[in-house]
Input
Amino acid sequence: MKKFFKQIVDHPKQIVIVFVLAAIICALCQQMIRVDYDMNDYLPKNSPSTTALDLMEEEFDGGIPNARVMIRDVTIPEALAMKQEIEQVGGVTDVTWLDDAVSIEEPLAMQDTDTVETYYKDGNALFSVTIEEEKQIAAVNEIREVIGDDNAMEGSAVSTVVATQSTVSEISKIAVIAVLFVIFILILTTTSWLDAFLVMAGLGVAILINAGTNLIFGEISFVTNAAGNILQLAVSLDYSVFLLHRFTECRQSQPDAKTAMVEALSMSVSSILSSGLTTVIGFLALCMMQFRIGPDLGRALAKGIAISLIVVFAFMPALILLTYKLEDKLKHKEFMPSFHKFGKAVQKLMLPCVICFVILIVPAYLASNSNSFYYGASKIFGPSTQLGADTEAIEEIFGKQDTYVLLVPKEDKALQKTLSDELHKLPEISSIISYVDTVGMEIPESYLDQATYEKLCSDHYTRLVLSIDAPYEGQETFHLVKNIRSIAEKYYSGEWYLAGQGVSTYDLMDTITADMTKVNLIAIGAVLIVLILTLKSITLPVILVLSIEAAIWINLSVPYFTDQTIFYIAYLIISSVQLGATVDYAILFTERYKEFRETYGKKDAIVQTVQAVTVSILTSGSALTVVGFLLGKISTHGLLSQLGYFLGKGTLCSLVIVLFVLPGLLYLFDGVFIKKKKQKI
Output
């Protein structure tokens, strides 16, 4: 490695120019990356609801309804006029209302009450609207202009548009505050006014290159777009800080800057690479998820950490060598204390902390696995947002409704009628729009006008549009989906297709719950293997991984004890992210403890280790904590907000365990991994 490092220090200007150009090019590439905000798009391609949606797009011009629009205080003629206005909006392919289900020329009192009140109740009209995915933003905004702020709209299309528009501005605000905070922390923890800006320059180059190279994926998820850059910033921060500290140490014994940098790189390469590798593996574990937000985030973060490592070992040494003279001129006094007294306090408290740890670990594990979950997107925006308020307003009048579409072969209308009759018996189905229900099985297809026929039938399939009196998710909904699928299978074995928001959420639940155990085991197993190889011990990796896993369990047990329902996707993602992002702290603490044990006894080694690593751990940990809480506080997107709070609380849990519990564990198991000839009393 020394030959490589010598090449780096001999060509600093060329290396800096190459990385800066790469960052500029990647910044331009970033503008070409599409961001997908629709959670249902991340279901596996072979999931039943995804297959049904794909077939529906092939067979019918209008897809499945993905928005509900409520107009208050309107007459039937006014509602029909509003329906026509909404139909004229670009991107709207279909609008379904009362006139599609019953004959409005007859008195409503003579019609089926449940069917009428699905669309028109107490003078309020509710339209089911289908919007093209590619035109959702323009269409939703235009519909809002048409109906005004006094009326309401909700649905997956509306949720996607709101997420798209709000997240961009919120993430920019989070990034600015996070960068300012990190600069402040770096000024406190370094010895030159220039150091903070050198570190931020390196992080900025790494983040821009990673963000731009996401172009190879074509598009990225909203989670990756929102959290990827700031997670990379917080997680890889300590690599550059560690190199700077090593360079400062080496210059005290080696006056030649280039030689000092080669020594600093050689001394730090092992610890930085081992920390980086465990972080990369923790993120890569997300790639094992079937739900494709996991692989999307995992590969982007793993690539980002790998790029950060390249920047630390190539760009940062070159940049430091070009600026070290200015850095010397801008030296300031140390703002951080020595932490020797803190080390003494930890040494006294560590064994009681281990006892508390042992007491908490089992209930924390059980509670973390007993949470209540949201699986889909229905609860992403709370009542404090316009979308959340609109959803509550619609549900207050019309209840929690959804629309499913069932495709079956169109030839046998008698069988379709039998199917429809059995579906009508399900109490959650308030009305069905289909050929046999709306037109009648006795009327030949040739009697219908083309527009009406194409809404109901394609060349191969007929569709039944089911109005559902049930929420988008929950046990009632999941039971209903299973019932409808069972009935369809009875009459059209293997030839039916069912789609809808509740159906997709059922498949989402089925997919991501199956991912949990697999992803966790792969992440833990891979990190254990890397630690066994790097630490050359079996006991130490088990202690380190158990410490961080316990921090994860404590973090995820809080919602259970506070009776909070959480998003399963945030729950699943944070397990791998917290492990990958904070296991570095445990590694750094353990490696320094082993170093100090060569010259100190167990208790003194603990004090010296705490004193040596606290600044480094707090630098990265505080940044990760603040980034998490910023995301949680500022984001109106419920899933991102919850992921942020998990990240902030989880990092705090990891910090507490690494600084107070891990010392006690190392002290107790010292004789297992410290060779006898190195032991001190």
